Amino acid sequence: VDLDTAKQELEEFIPHVRNIADESIRKMAGRDLMRFKRFKKQGIAVKFGRFTQKENNRIRKNVEEFLLITGIDNAEKLLFTSRYPEDKETISRLKVEHLFCEKLSEGIPRPWRLIYYRARKMFDPNNYKGRYTNEEKEKLKKYYALHGNDWKKISEMMSRSNISVAKKYSEIKSAINYGPWSKEETQKLMHAVEEVLRKTMEKEDANSLSSSGKSHRDLLIDREKLYGKLPWTAIEAKVGTRYWRQCKQKWTSVVTKKITKGRQLYRGTKGLQAKIDLIKRLYEMNVEDPNEVNWEELSDTIGDVPKAYVQARFYKLKVSCVPFWQRRTFSEIIDYLFEKKLPELEEEL
């Protein structure tokens, strides 16, 4: 199909498709359009956001089956072919002959590109190598000075994934403050978030601010956008003294305080009751994966708060109360909290 037709047909499944580069749209028309239409016939919507455990398992199954069909040694060779120059030609031929794109995405209602990136993250042996040593941090600074944002090149030099080195450099690139936030830092954060929100709104409605003649402080915005997906690396750069995760956590705290007008929602008897209600609601949901939880719906368990605040409270609860929580599945963690911790909290209350 031609480009305009491809955009029109893909828009039904990907509303923001017209913001995507033309070359990417052409690839999606070839790889995804027919798949999306088949999913539609089955009543299945195209998904975005975090992958569920079920989807991760399907990716593993698809990769393993492709390895069996082709005889390729391992997933790293399949997904990081450039690391094996002597086998590159053979592997590339096998991928074409056995329809790698179709096989990898089979049964997963997402754009192929996102499935491919997820598979690479899951099967990259360089992605899970523990903490960075001081020597590695110094190397990372040196390589960045030489190669800038060429994370692919730097990742190869450090034998770490490109996501890992990019995130780590984000954390160490400046004098990061780990203590309490100063008033000046908090103001910088608030101005940085306001700036990116304003730019987003201007893109959505190019004439809204100019035609209305609103003052600089007159910014009306949907509440969800205050704690939705924000460009945290850009915000980090504007704050300067904190890395992106700290900025995200602090912003959640700021928004929560504003929304609740400073009320202490998670202290004393109210805090105990909130923990009890949170455990009960999660247990009633009976889900296998945290990505399947509707955290927005749970926000009224604690109070009228952002979902990120509820997620943070749950994280603290499982870390402090569930032994060996890293080795347990999500449902096992919920069962433990319901069976062991809930009675203690109810007695304490």
Q: In percent, how much strand structure appears in the residues? A: under 5%
* Number of DSSP helical runs: 20
Number of domains: 4
Strand count: 0
Radius of gyration: 24 Å
Derived from helix and strand composition plus strand pairing, the structural class reads mainly alpha
Assembly annotation: single chain
Mean pLDDT level: 81
Query: What is the N-to-C succession of helices and strands?
Result: HHHHHHHHHHHHHHHHHHHH
- Head-to-tail CA distance between termini: 64 Å
Largest sheet entry: none
Shape: globular
Low-confidence stretches: 207-217
Q: Roughly how much helix do the residues carry, as a percent range?
A: 55-70%
Domain HTH myb-type: 124-177
Protein name: TTF1 factor
GO molecular function: chromatin binding
Domain Myb-like: 124-172, 173-255
Topology of helices and strands:
Layout: H1 3-11, H2 22-31, H3 33-41, H4 53-70, H5 75-79, H6 88-97, H7 100-105, H8 112-123, H9 134-147, H10 151-158, H11 162-172, H12 183-204, H13 208-212, H14 223-226, H15 232-239, H16 244-259, H17 268-285, H18 295-302, H19 307-321, H20 330-348
Helix pairs in contact: 1-2, 4-8, 9-10, 9-11, 10-11, 12-15, 15-16, 17-20, 18-19
Structural commentary:
It is a single chain. This protein is mainly α and 349 residues long. It folds into four domains: 121 residues, no CATH class; 38 residues; 67 residues, no CATH class; 81 residues, no CATH class. It is built from 20 helices and no strands. Helix 12 crosses helix 15, helix 15 crosses helix 16 and helix 17 runs antiparallel to helix 20. The chain starts with a helix and ends with a helix. About 3% of the residues have low confidence.
